[in-house]
Specification:
Layout (H helix, E strand, L loop, with lengths): L4 E10 L2 E10 L5 E7 L7 H12 L2 E6 L15 H11 L4 H16 L4 E11 L1 H9 L5 E7 L25 E7 L7 H13 L4 E6 L16 H19 L1
Parallel strand pairs: 3-4, 3-5, 5-6, 6-7, 7-8
Antiparallel strand pairs: 1-2, 2-4
Length: 246
């Protein structure tokens, strides 16, 4: 049986810089919605590639840019403590303007493909990527955002400046947020702040809180994986993308 998904590594352009990205798309002909997948601190590793492939299998064209490329090439690690420390080091070297450029570069690449609809894209991000996609929800082309346990949204922005939550009023699409109630990196009060900001600025949104789930609950490569929460969250992601991207 022929594969339902086609994958390759491509290059996108961000501020005149070439950045690699993992592309996954349906192998059948047609026109599909585009989705940008943003990594955890662990890079575009096997889990992120698998997420892109799942999205492609659901009928979208997915692309995952290597957002650490300015600091290190081809970064991907596992989930040991040393891996986490290294990933956080590179996370701390990112800047909001560069991250926005990387996401826009991925969008531009999608829009350059014949099989991608040019009517707006979705984004999905995990961990640090959950923060990045909240930031990128301010881009005009982003119509649907799935933000998973993005820490620091209420307290900082990459590279410094006002916290990312201050940009909530610039979001024009729909945002779904996914959080575990036992997440040691995100206090429940911060989730309440995010929900209040989205409501205040009339951003269409849904916030999902999963009892007993912790940070990284969606990743089946990690000890923190919570199958029930991950399954429910995935259904909501598909609901969001199918409604907003067709």
């Amino acid at each position: 049986m022929a594969s339902l998904v086609r994958t390759e590594t491509v290059e996108i352009t961000s501020n005149d810089m070439q950045i690699p990205a993992y592309l996954a798309e349906p192998s059948r002909e047609g026109t599909f919605g585009g989705v940008v997948v943003v990594q955890e601190v662990f890079g575009v590793n096997s889990h992120i590639r698998e997420v892109a492939e799942r999205i492609a299998g659901a009928g979208f064209v997915a692309i995952a840019p290597h957002i650490y490329h300015r600091q290190v090439q081809g970064f991907e690690v596992g989930y040991e403590e040393a891996d986490l420390e290294l990933g956080r080091k590179y996370k701390n070297g990112t800047r909001a303007d560069e991250l926005l450029s990387d996401v826009q570069g991925a969008i531009n690449y999608l829009y350059g493909k014949d099989n991608v609809a040019k009517t707006g894209v979705g984004t999905i991000g995990f961990c640090f990527g959950g923060h990045v996609v909240y930031l990128a929800a301010t881009l005009d082309d982003v119509k649907a955002t799935a933000s998973f346990y993005g820490a620091g949204i209420t307290s900082m922005t990459p590279g410094g400046g006002d916290p990312t939550i201050k940009r909530t009023g610039d979001i024009s699409g729909t945002l779904y947020g996914f959080f575990g109630t036992e997440d040691p990196l995100i206090d429940p009060y911060e989730v309440d702040q995010i929900e209040a900001a989205l409501t205040q600025h009339n951003v269409p949104h849904k916030i999902f809180r999963y009892e007993g789930a912790t940070h990284g609950f969606f990743c089946d490569h990690r000890d923190s994986y919570h199958p029930a929460a991950a399954k429910d969250a995935w259904q909501h992601v598909l609901e969001l993308f199918k409604e907003k991207l067709g």
